[in-house]
């Protein structure tokens, strides 16, 4: 299909979805409450920018009686801004302006400050719909996100001025991106991600990763043990999916070739322990991104608590990722395959041909130049140091002992170690600066990796520093997606995308069905686009508020897990995904052979994630879902699967 035809289909999809969603009946009370809350926040921010220290408890001035419900909802939220002084006497005038509302706070005849908020309407859906449709049609995620962002900025600027949308398209976009780049939380996420990739590069260059692979290789004496060693190394390199694919595929390929394991099976094991493992890990380059999206959603909903704690609470509902790892364990242990993978494994066992005759394997990726001795300790100790640093740092930050502002001796004197083992008032959950803790821990891990590489690995410090700074090459695209994802998430929040969906769907969707629909939507989008991060960026800001207003925090927890897992499905199984391609490269496997043999396994796991997991997530404990799914996996492998040895 030509690009022109794909773009035409994308345009038709945008028009149809916009028309269909604009026709949905809205809960006007919800919409008014959302608009009032957003205008109240905008006025409070404007008061702070104007240097006002006192709260404003204003009398309402209505110039349009149709705005009376909005005025009542606004007054119910209490005084504008915060301060120690007595409330200032003032008047608040509400005006309808363009596609939004303006509030003017006055003392006497003088206007003190004004603020504007966009109207919660169907146009709020245009940026995410446009971004998704273009991403699917063009397969260019960066361009699609950028255009969706620019359209959203233009919609925010529709205020009756003839050049408003044009200035929004240009200056508005620049302002939103600039706001992302000066946000402390997001800067810490950048630092954490860069440092963690740098630590992996140093551990590789110092010989640590080679030593770890050699140690695992001693366990590999046949097809099953070599597959188990590959899966174990994949689980060990949990901190980044890109590093995982390169390290595991390149390191284990000689071992699996010797054991007559097909390249297709190697690529499956590499791919299945990259994004699914990194997306689950408590410390990885993924968690910074995932937590940042959750933090945005929690801020939009004014929810208290830590975004990191919310991420941890979603882990029991990450059915696809966890079940995929369970399937791998059963598959390797039972030594049974089915579908195209069975044919590939039988070919390798019987003929020794690990590649299909006539296939076009992608060239094998090379590991970074190793300048030190192959010593597993150089890789293991820095990772353990980061894990310990995060746990200790979160506990101390939750207790108020350390923060970006420094050390608090009085909080240290009052530190109660018993609260670390309590479910209530736990210091770890009370941590408010999780991104800062992650950044500091990863810097410490990087410093330790360099020190160990120079001392035990006998590598040059300059060479190790060069490996650390080389992180930018890997992360340039990831950071670009990150910036645009945060920006379009901010635009969606300002336009009220989630608020519109809540107003339209909160009273129509049953709670038990929502996680299923979210997972399926995320799976479709991520498979079609090949990107998990782009899918999360568009889907989570809309899904989280919808779930919260239908079923509160418990349903939001399940639904956030469904967004993350549905997005990872495409990253794992789509031939357009960078990790799928990189797994094929590092395993020296034909890309379409890898996709064709992996897809039946991925679809089986996804089917069980829906039917045994998300369909019952609001009614059953996750343990029951996992036991049922594992039983089905064992049954399928026993009845449908066959041994490649026969």
Ordered list of secondary-structure elements with their pairings:
Blueprint: H1 3-22, H2 28-49, E1 59-62, H3 68-76, E2 91-97, E3 100-107, E4 110-118, H4 126-138, H5 141-156, H6 164-181, H7 184-205, H8 208-217, H9 223-236, H10 241-258, H11 263-272, H12 275-280, H13 285-300, H14 307-314, H15 319-334, H16 340-351, H17 377-398, E5 402-403, E6 406-407, H18 409-413, H19 427-430, H20 434-455, H21 461-469, H22 471-495, H23 497-505, H24 514-529, H25 532-573, H26 578-586, H27 591-613, H28 622-639
Parallel strand pairs: 1-2
Antiparallel strand pairs: 2-3, 3-4, 5-6
* Domain unit count: 3
Q: What is the percentage of strand-forming residues?
A: under 5%
Uncertain runs: 160-164
Taken from the alpha-carbon principal axes, the silhouette is globular
Report on this structure.
About 1% of the residues have low confidence. Strand 1, helix 3 and strand 2 form a beta-alpha-beta unit. 67% of the residues lie in helices and 5% in strands. The longest helix is centred in the C-terminal third of the chain and has 42 residues. It contains 28 helices and 6 strands. It is globular, with a radius of gyration of 26 Å.
């Amino acid at each position: 299909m030509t690009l022109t035809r794909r773009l035409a289909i994308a345009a038709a999809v945008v028009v149809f979805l916009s028309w269909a969603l604009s026709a949905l009946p809205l809960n006007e009370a919800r919409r008014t409450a959302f608009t009032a809350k957003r205008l109240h926040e905008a006025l409070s921010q404007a008061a702070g920018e104007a240097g006002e220290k006192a709260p404003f408890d204003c009398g309402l001035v209505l110039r349009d009686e149709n705005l009376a419900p909005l005025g009542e909802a606004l007054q119910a939220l209490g005084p504008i801004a915060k301060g120690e002084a007595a409330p200032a006497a003032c008047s608040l005038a509400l005006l309808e302006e363009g596609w939004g509302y303006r509030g003017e706070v006055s003392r006497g005849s003088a206007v003190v400050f004004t603020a504007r908020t966009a109207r919660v309407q169907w146009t709020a859906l245009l940026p995410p719909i446009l971004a998704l449709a273009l991403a699917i049609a063009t397969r260019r995620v960066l361009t699609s996100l950028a255009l969706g962002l620019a359209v959203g900025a233009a919609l925010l600027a529709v205020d009756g001025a003839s050049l408003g949308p044009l200035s929004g398209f240009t200056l508005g976009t620049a302002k939103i991106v600039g706001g992302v780049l000066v946000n402390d939380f997001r800067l810490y996420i950048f630092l954490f991600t860069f440092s963690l990739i740098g630590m992996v590069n140093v551990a590789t260059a110092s010989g640590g990763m080679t030593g770890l692979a050699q140690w695992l290789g001693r366990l590999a004496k046949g097809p099953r043990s070599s597959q188990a060693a590959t899966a174990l190394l994949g689980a060990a390199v949990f901190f980044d999916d890109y590093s995982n694919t390169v390290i595991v595929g390149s390191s284990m390929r000689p071992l699996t070739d010797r054991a007559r394991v097909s390249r297709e099976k190697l690529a499956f094991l590499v791919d299945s322990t990259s994004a699914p493992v990194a997306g689950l890990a408590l410390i990885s380059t993924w968690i910074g991104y995932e937590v940042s999206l959750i933090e945005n959603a929690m801020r939009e909903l004014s929810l208290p608590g830590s975004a990191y704690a919310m991420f941890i609470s979603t882990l029991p509902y990450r059915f696809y990722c966890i079940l995929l790892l369970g399937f791998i364990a059963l598959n390797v242990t039972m030594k049974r395959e089915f579908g195209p993978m069975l044919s590939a494994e039988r070919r390798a066992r019987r003929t020794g041909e690990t590649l299909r005759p006539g296939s076009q394997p992608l060239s094998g990726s090379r590991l970074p130049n190793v300048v030190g001795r192959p010593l597993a300790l150089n890789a293991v100790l820095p990772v353990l140091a980061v894990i310990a640093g995060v746990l200790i740092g979160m506990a101390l930050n939750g207790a108020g002992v350390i923060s970006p502002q420094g050390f608090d001796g009085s909080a240290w004197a009052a530190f109660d170690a018993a609260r670390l083992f309590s479910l209530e008032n736990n210091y770890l959950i009370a941590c408010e600066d999780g991104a800062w803790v992650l950044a500091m821990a990863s810097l410490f891990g990087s410093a330790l990796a360099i020190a160990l590489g120079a001392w035990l690995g006998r590598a040059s410090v300059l060479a190790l520093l060069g490996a650390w700074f080389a992180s930018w090459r890997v992360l340039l695209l990831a950071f670009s997606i990150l910036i645009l994802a945060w920006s379009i998430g901010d635009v969606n929040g300002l336009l009220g995308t989630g608020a519109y969906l809540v107003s339209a769907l909160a009273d129509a969707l049953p709670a038990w069905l929502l996680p299923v629909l979210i997972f399926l939507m995320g799976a479709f989008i991520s498979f079609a686009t090949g990107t998990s991060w782009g899918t999360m960026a568009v889907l989570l800001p809309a899904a989280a508020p919808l779930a919260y207003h239908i079923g509160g925090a418990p349903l939001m927890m399940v639904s956030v897990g469904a967004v993350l897992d549905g997005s990872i499905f495409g990253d794992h199984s789509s031939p357009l995904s960078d990790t799928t391609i990189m797994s094929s490269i590092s395993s020296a496997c034909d890309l379409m052979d890898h996709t064709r043999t992996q897809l039946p396994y991925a679809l089986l796991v996804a089917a069980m994630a829906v039917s045994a997991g998300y369909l019952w997530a609001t009614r059953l404990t996750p343990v029951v879902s996992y036991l049922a799914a594992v039983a089905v996996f064992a049954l399928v492998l026993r009845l449908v699967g066959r041994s490649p040895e026969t």
